[in-house]
Amino acid sequence: MNAQPTTPSPEVDSDGSSASPAPEDHLVTTLHSLTLPDGPLDYTATAGTVVLREEPEGEEYGRGAAYAELFSVSYLAQGTDDPQRPVMFAFNGGPGASTVWLHLGLLGPRRVDSGDAGSPAAPPHQLVDNHETILRHADLVVVDAMTTGYSRPAPGAKPARHHGLTADRDLIAAFVIDWLTRNQRWTSPIHLAGESYGTTRASAVAAHLMDRYYVAVAGVVLISPVLDFGTISFDPGNDSPYVHYLPTYAAIAHAHGKHEGRLLQDVVDEAEAFAEQEYPALLAAGLRLSSEQVQEASARIGALIGIDPEWVERANLRVEHLAFLAELLRDQGLVTGRIDGRFTAPAGAGNAATMETDPSIDQLAPSYTATINQYLRTELDFSSDVVYEIMSGRVHPWSYKDFENRSVEVASDLSRLLRKSPHTTVLVSHGYHDAATPFHASEHVLAQLAIPREDYAERIRIEYYEAGHMMYCHEPSRLALSQHLAEFVTGEDSAVETTSDGD
């Protein structure tokens, strides 16, 4: 273990008096080796917090003032001095989620054995070697957003200033610039990988890096994306979510035996065709539909999503996602998961309108919580006197002040990036059973990007997996996604079948 030296220096107040010591980096570097089928992969892991500084406002120039201490883990492969080795910056979303999920679930050299739907891992929770780690092909930096993980404001600063889309974007972009400078990696191909709200962040950060700093990223990875919140927000007068969620409902119904004898892909294709053609017209017709038409539509929707048509009719043909997850298996006394609809748990109340809590998060999170805390201390030799925030509600309220009177969206950012940076490519990963960020909503937004048609066809790769939001807890999906990531980063174009054709 090698602890990087730091030299504390006192802050000075405006009157010249000495204040509390200036915050300093707290970084620890350790050496590791991962045994792979084709030989050992030696790497260093640097874990800890770095102090980010900003120039003071006003006309007078001054040294940068500390405003944030961001926690990250940087994995650098040893034995290569290639200054053009790719580097991937990864983060989760929430808002309020640390990056433990991508870190230990998919990308890092060590991964958690979390189990899967129907067989979540029991304690004691374990880490195993990740032979599919992206570190085989690119250096990896996992970073936690403000108030998640160990990331905190600098002493005396307020965290709330970073709790919003624009401020969060600027903070993560500043971290990327700082890391490239510290590590002399300005000529490396840069990839940003986000999951869930992390895809909102990745799109905004990638565009901001280009707009503000003229840094063109090589690739953007969007795992379980949400690019336009209007497509998934069940607000009065907005019928889009009902349309975009319906194919996901059908996929989840299939996972629970509601389409016995049919292939998942056939069910999804039928549901998407209905959602794109008939369903919008039915919702638009509203009270102009006759009773017979309403009954016919309810029967059609009920058959697709595995729900009693009378329940669909009482819902006015509009099935809200939390209500669906509570209703689908009500006759069995179960609720289904939002993050992953393959998961179930006993219902807290038989007549509850929505589920009490999300069984997919409840059954997966404990293994991540235990292993990240153990891993940082025992293998990476890093500790802190604050709590590692796996999921933090303290980031709320999250500010979308720049989106008053319009939908929160970053599709325009992604479009602008692709227009300005002709070599940037995008990998999109969807889970069929993801009831948090439904795949059809993402498909719709991507198809409406303000880019040339040929760019959509040639620069955006879209993949599907027979799992949920965190599709890497499903082993076949984890292996497929890892392969797709490897191809994306290396630029290889080999055809690999995903689990989308499963039954």
From TrEMBL:
Q: Where is the signal peptide?
A: none
* Record Pfam families: Peptidase_S10
Note the coiled coil stretches, chain numbering. none
Checking InterPro entries in the record gives: AB_hydrolase_fold, Peptidase_S10
- Give the span(s) annotated as Disordered: 1-24
Taxonomy, superkingdom = Bacteria
Q: What is this protein called?
A: S10 family peptidase
Gene source species: Brachybacterium tyrofermentans
